[in-house]
Amino acid sequence: MPYKDPEKQKEYDRQKKAKAKAKSKQSRTRNFATILYPESAPANWRDIIAELHIPVLVSPLHDKDTNPDGTQKKPHYHVLFMFDTVKNWESQIKPLFDSFGGVGREIVNSARGYARYLCHLDNPEKAQYNPNDILAFGGADYLTVTHLPTDDMAMLKDIFAYIRANNIFSLSELLDICAINNPDWFMIISTSRAYIVDKYIKSLKWEKETNYKRVFEV
Fold first, then answer.
1. What does residue 8 show for φ and ψ, rounded to 5 degrees?
2. Contacts from 127-136 at CB under 8 Å and sequence distance 24+?
3. CB 164 within 8 Å of CB 218
4. Chain segment 166-211, per-residue pLDDT in tens
5. Which of 103, 132, 111 has the alpha carbon at shortest distance from 56?
6. Which of 35, 61, 118, 180 is exposed most, by the fewest CB atoms within 10 A?
7. What's the whole-model pTM score?
């Protein structure tokens, strides 16, 4: 008992309880991340993660990252775990990370933000990595997690440019091409943007057939 004064002791106990509660709260969340170094991880770390049956996203190998002084960082992976409910770090998450060689932990406030960080999408000053190299486990879908409305607009511009450049006048042909060569385009067209893309194709076809002269050329 640190204090003889009952009031001081009461205040001390209150602060101690508040700190313990805050610490417990900080260690409980739905999303956690860790770093995995290929040199120290077990050879079958991918199998270990897959057998957990938990939604997990693993970054491409970060082998071009640098420290503030310009020296190169050790090649590593960022591993993002996403749960449906909050989990406790010590009793539930740490054993999972230890099982495949995860080093350290990071409490993730935004799964979308961290998932985009896996490739440094919002950090142009950092080395950029290809989202196609993301590893997904347990039903996790990188595009679904990271998707933003502005991504749709940017992709639609690219799709329209491709249609014009290649004289695509068939939605089915475009979808077949995308299914093989561009899964991102295939997903956006087939799930939410088929109507506008089809209308664009038909409008462009009409322009070609009637020799329509645009006021502004794209």
1. -65, -40
2. 127/62, 127/64, 127/65, 127/66, 129/59, 129/60, 129/62, 129/64, 130/60, 133/60, 133/61, 134/57, 134/58, 134/59, 134/60, 135/46, 135/57, 135/58, 136/56, 136/57, 136/58
3. yes
4. 999 999 999 999 999 988 899 889 988 999 999 999 999 999 999 9
5. 111
6. 180
7. 0.65
